[in-house]
Amino acid sequence: MRRKWFALLLAVFTVTGVLSSQGTASMKGYDKGLQLQRFKTVQPTLHYPRGIEVSPRYRVMVKPAGDKTPWNKAANGTAAYKAWPDYVDPETIPAAYKDNSVHLSQIDTKTRVSIRVELIDGGTIETLKVNPSRYSEVQATLTSGKDWLEFEVNPSDLTKHILVEINAPETGPYSEGLMLFVNPLSQIPSGNVLILPPGVIGSRHPAMNELNAIVIDENSPYDALYIPHNTIVDGRIEVRKEGFTIAGRGMVVGSRWAWPKSKPDWAQNYPSDISPDGSVIKGIIDMNGGQAEGITTIHPYHFNYEGADSYSNLKAFGWRFSSDGFHGDIVRGSFARVNDDANYFNHGLIERNSYWGMQNGALFQLGWGQAAADGGGGTRISEINVLRGEWMSDGGDRQNNGLFSGVLRNTTGDLEDIVFDDIRVDGSLFRLIAFDMDTHSGTLRNFTFRNIWIEKPFTYPSGVINMIKVGGGIEDFVFENLTVGGQHLTSLEQLNPMDTPFGDEIEFR
After folding, report:
1. Is 191 in contact with 220 (CB distance < 8 Å)?
2. Distance, CA of 11 to chain centre
3. What pLDDT shows up at residue 270?
């Protein structure tokens, strides 16, 4: 297998000329003096992967702010795509999302830009909202007409995430929304870098193995993989080498896989039956430490990103019940619209991220069933945007969705020193917190929820409650400056319906 892999890579790079050490000398558009990088549409060799196409609804154009020349759709345009859950196993998609879609577009910039979005499908704007409210320059410059809108955005050292909601329902699933990503300039990693060629890297490409995966072996000569903005990987990427880097602005799309069976057996570590060596395949980007930066993943088999030490400027989309976002300790400047838990964490740094919550799962998940390590904690979560929340029910007894969640059951170990700070929710949530851990024998110690602003009151659909239940108890549990629907909450009673035995131990400030 290994000899075949390296022979194939040698053939690929002999033909395409994309093998490089220290990157390439002529990656057009990524020179040191660049201020603005618009994206070219990926040219398919045969066709795009399942569930993605060039957007039939939106045209996105970008130019430096203050540029008075007329908009030019050819010169100012940047690529826009539509994604939807075109899986071969539709039974794994919630019924509410089977016909759902999202559009996405992005640029790299180190200067303030003006962005124009046009409807090209004959639609008109009846209602319009652009989130997050945190980006004051967007809100201050927003103008619109019958079928267009414009606004300005400041550059940042981490990706900014902007949701354009046109004719969106107040609650429940919203289709046809546009996600715009305003990135810092992409940098090719140092070392011996494998750079993929433009176009669709699919099953007929020699870099793919028989299971539609690009595998970086433990003994690979490469230090990093770079996926340019005009490249789509139709498959998945598995990195077995320690300390590897994946970077770029391209997409990895995993919709080709069928679920192994209609009712997967979690206890048997599915889906190991599609791995040639018996290992468990979960992530569409599956790493062994190292870091991932900048790329977009759509339609994960299970997780979007798993195994890296740090993540930055990433974008994660998934509609399956078990499409998770990020499994790792450091997540910065990243976005997730996934139908399961967006972040798993016990310690680390999660900052300047944005989320679009869907029907299943939570944005911040302390754990699901697994034993918690003693002393787990030391997490800082800050400057978070919730662009939209679409939870409608608990989905039975799982109690596993909303903003803050923990579903540790029959487990042990303390979790401590976790701070949630500066979280803004545009719109409404159906509840604040669900720590359903009454059989967990560990203690939650020194938890702080600070500067949390939720635009509208909680919706609390039938049967949904807040809960803080921990078998081992809680200590130093504080809500500080919590505002919901314009009301500053000062007592636990204001979170009713609430189920917790710890009323005297929870402090409000």
Report:
1. no
2. 34
3. 46
List, as own/partner pairs, every contact residues 72-76 make where C-beta atoms lie below 8 angstroms and the sequence separation is at least 24, other chains included: 76/38, 76/116
Q: CA nearest 321: which of 355, 360, 267, 356?
A: 360
Query: How far apart, in whole angstroms, are the C-alpha atoms of residue 429 and residue 432?
Result: 7
Which strand ranges, in their side-by-side order, compose the sheet holding 283-288? 213-216, 236-242, 283-288, 303-306, 324-327, 343-344, 362-368, 402-407, 433-437, 466-470, 498-499
Question: Rounded to an integer, what distance in angstroms lies between the CA atom of residue 499 and that of residue 492?
Answer: 10
Q: How many CB atoms sit inside 10 A of residue 3's CB?
A: 7
Specify whether the CB–CB gap between 31 and 110 falls below 8 A.
no
pLDDT at 210 over 50: yes
- For residues 236 and 393, which has the higher predicted lDDT (pLDDT)? 236
Cα distance between residue 376 and residue 423, in whole Å: 22
Lowest mean pLDDT, pick from 132-136, 147-151, 182-186, 271-275: 271-275
Count of alpha carbons within 13 angstroms of residue 361, beta-carbon side? 28
Q: Which amino acid would we find at residue 291?
A: Q
For residue 414, pLDDT beyond 70: yes
Query: Would you state the structure tokens that stand for residue 271, as one six-digit string?
Result: 């889906």
- Nearest-angstrom CA–CA distance, 101 and 86: 10
Cα 203 from Cα 201, distance rounded (Å): 7
Task: Say which residues have a Cβ less than 8 Å from residue 382's Cβ, sequence separation at least 6.
Answer: 350, 351, 352, 419, 420, 421, 422
For residues 327 and 310, what is the distance between their CA atoms, to the nearest angstrom? 9
Cα dihedral: 487, 160, 101, 432 (round 10): -30
Length of the chain: 509
Q: Which band of pLDDT confidence, cut at 50, 70 and 90, is reported for residue 24?
A: very low
- Reported as a single tens digit per residue, the pLDDT across 104-160 is 999 999 999 999 999 999 999 999 999 999 999 999 999 999 999 999 999 999 999
DSSP-assigned letter for residue 136: H
Q: What is the pLDDT at residue 280?
A: 60
What pLDDT does 27 receive?
Answer: 47
Listed as own residue / partner, the contacts of 365-369 with beta carbons closer than 8 Å and 24 or more positions apart are: 365/341, 365/400, 365/405, 365/406, 365/407, 366/405, 366/406, 366/407, 366/408, 366/415, 366/435, 367/406, 367/407, 367/408, 367/411, 368/341, 368/344, 368/400, 368/407, 368/408, 369/407, 369/408, 369/409, 369/411
pLDDT of residue 287: 95
Task: Kindly report, residue by residue over 438-473, the tens digit of the pLDDT.
Answer: 999 989 999 999 999 999 999 888 788 999 999 999
Residue 421: both structure tokens together: 């700070």
